[in-house]
Write a structure and sequence with these properties.
Elements (H helix, E strand, L loop, with lengths): L19 E10 L2 E11 L4 E6 L5 H8 L7 E6 L2 E3 L4 H6 L2 E4 L11 H6 L8 H19 L14 H14 L4 E5 L7 H16 L3 E5 L3 H7 L2 E6 L2 E7 L5 H9 L17 E11 L5 E11 L3 E5 L6 H8 L7 E6 L2 E4 L7 H6 L2 E4 L3 H5 L6 H4 L18 H14 L16 H13 L5 E5 L7 H16 L3 E5 L3 H7 L2 E6 L2 E7 L5 H8 L3 E2 L6 E2 L4 E3 L2 E2 L11
Parallel strand pairs: 3-8, 3-9, 6-7, 7-8, 13-18, 13-19, 16-17, 17-18
Antiparallel strand pairs: 1-2, 1-4, 4-5, 9-10, 11-12, 11-14, 14-15, 19-20, 21-22, 23-24
Helix pairs in contact: 13-14, 14-15
């Protein structure tokens, strides 16, 4: 497939050469052709975005550049010179660093210990610590990567943990920095700060490669963007000369509606209500703290917040996976008390509640099962599938085929193992299973996590359709764009408590971000600060210091 640009020959002067050239990179994993002769050029001192659907090959390509995989064919050039990268050690030696979506940090170590880990100098550790501390302070001044060198990493908020990852790369003399989905767990304010850091890196000559599915971020921070589809580069654009709509079409191969069509909600009576709901875990940590809210029939209520602030525990309690320590749940007027017999998944389903879990691999399906078995999980005792312990395979396969057709699950093969479906198709299978019975209350956790833009469009339409059919939908997502696009009301959680609520049509991204950090705006315009009194009418924040999200 032709591309809009091709790598140029390396000049005689390496100082004029691109930072990275990938020439004819090819990689297979058995029958899967992950990269098909990929060629691209990344200019020195630029921020270059790479976008594509799930399975487009972008992560494989960056894994080859960082040495996780070796290409079957093709060439890598750094600063115009061919190089063979067989391991991350080779990549680091070549000046390449990578910040992974899931941080590679030791939670019990301090910042300085994490930064110097694996790069100690000499046999005496104190010399390494002193050197690393001095370098952390210098990098903090130069790039805005300010972080306490002696802080324990596990006690830092995620935005500061990400800074530690970037510091690790720069400490190893990184000149080319790869970031994989870097904003997935950040508040809007932390995302803005990350972008300022990336621009500071660019200004000092560092080349940044950004892998993200968030097209708004591509438009905000990159200089150039490469679009991949089915293992190939299908287009390259200067960011200033394109827009989100064109990039979406290039990624998917058809026009994509980035925001779902949504009529004004017509909410009815409360279908789900919680009163004074609290949960203390086995370690004595309070995960939910006096939570009160309701969701009415025919509306979508979005729960926003940085990951780890009680949203996951809330879904587990409401679905019956965990029993609350105290409080009351009402489903269609039926009371479910803490410690009661009804507080079990099967009983909650009988009350008319369905649950799409956040972690599809752990709670949504069984990877070793064929699709038809996962398609009836939780409903396997329905008479439609047989009687007692005996399940009619033919009936279950027929139902699975129907669900696959209605939710466009590909390939539509009920006998195929769940592990062989892409993440987006696994998610659609789970959504089909839970939505097909027209539940009165639908709990949806991270509905588009790891899902490509085409599947996101489809999933959002289905969620809105459930609302329009009269279901009460509770949506939990760390994607603030998703919360804003779908929610009729938005609730923000911080450390297990509800700290803010607003109608969806009046939602302000900046205010939501401040609630997510349990902070208010600094009058001097320097960002979040700790409130001295009520941050918003009726909301009092009592901590004398800025609290940090629990992990």
């Amino acid at each position: 497939m032709s591309t809009d640009s091709a790598p140029v020959a390396a000049p005689d002067n390496p100082g004029d050469a691109p930072a990275v050239e990938l020439v004819g990179i090819d990689k297979r994993f058995g029958a899967v052709h992950a990269n098909r002769g990929v060629s691209l050029t990344i200019a020195k001192g630029s921020i270059h975005g790479i976008v594509g659907e799930n399975g487009a090959g972008k992560s494989t390509l960056m894994s080859i550049l960082y040495g996780f995989y070796e290409a079957d064919a093709g060439e890598i050039r750094i600063d115009g010179r061919p190089i063979r990268i067989k391991s991350p050690r080779d990549a680091i030696a070549a000046g390449i660093g990578m910040v992974h979506q899931h941080f590679m940090l030791v939670d019990t170590f301090t910042v300085v210990e994490n930064v110097m880990l694996g790069a100690e100098s000499g046999v005496l550790i104190q010399g390494s610590i002193a050197k690393a501390r001095a370098e952390i302070e210098r990098l903090g001044r130069d790039y805005g990567l300010v972080v306490d060198p002696d802080a324990v990493v596990g006690e830092l908020p995620v935005g500061e943990q990400q800074r530690v990852e970037i510091l690790k790369a720069l400490y190893r003399q990184c000149r080319i920095l790869i970031l994989d989905e870097p904003t997935g767990v950040l508040t809007p304010q932390e995302t803005d700060q990350l972008f300022r850091i990336l621009k500071a890196l660019k200004d000092r000559g560092v080349t940044v490669i950004l892998i993200t599915h968030k097209l708004r971020e591509i438009m905000a921070v990159t200089d150039r963007v490469t679009v991949m589809r089915l293992g190939e580069v299908v287009a390259e654009r200067n960011t200033a000369e394109t827009d989100r709509e064109e990039l979406a079409v290039l990624m998917v191969g058809r026009k994509v509606r980035l925001a779902p069509d949504r009529a004004k909600a017509r909410p009815g009576q409360p279908a789900l209500a919680v009163e004074h709901l609290s949960l203390t875990d086995e370690f004595g940590v309070k995960r939910l703290d006096d939570v009160n809210f309701s969701v009415r029939a025919g509306e979508i209520v979005g729960i926003a917040g940085v990951s780890g602030n009680g949203q996951s525990e809330l879904l587990e309690v409401l679905s019956g996976i965990r029993g609350p320590t105290s409080g009351l749940i009402r489903v269609l007027g039926q009371e479910v008390k803490a410690g009661g017999e009804q507080c079990r998944p099967d009983r909650m389903r009988r009350l008319g509640l369905a649950h799409v879990p956040e972690d599809r691999s752990r709670l949504g399906l069984v990877s070793a099962f064929p699709a038809w078995e996962s398609a009836i999980l939780g409903y396997q005792r329905d008479k439609a599938y047989g009687f007692g312990p005996l399940i009619s395979t033919s009936a279950a396969e027929k139902e699975c085929a129907r669900l696959m057709q209605s939710f466009d699950v590909r390939p539509p093969e009920p006998g195929l193992g769940c592990a062989k479906f892409s993440g987006g198709n696994q998610q659609k299978l789970i959504l089909a299973r839970e939505m097909a019975r027209n539940p009165k209350v639908l709990l949806v956790g991270q509905p588009t996590r790891g899902v490509d833009i085409g599947a996101i469009e489809f999933i959002h339409k289905q969620i809105v359709a459930m609302r329009d059919q009269g279901s009460a939908v509770l949506l939990v997502s760390v994607e603030l764009d998703e919360i804003l696009a779908l929610s009729d009301r938005i609730i923000v959680m911080f450390q297990g408590r509800i700290v803010g609520e607003t109608p969806g049509e009046r939602a302000d991204e900046r205010q939501l971000g401040l609630w997510m950090a349990n902070a208010q705006a600094d009058p001097g315009g320097e960002g979040p600060t700790v409130p001295r009194g009520p941050a918003i009418p009726g909301l009092t924040l009592q901590s004398p210091t800025l609290p940090r999200p629990t992990s």
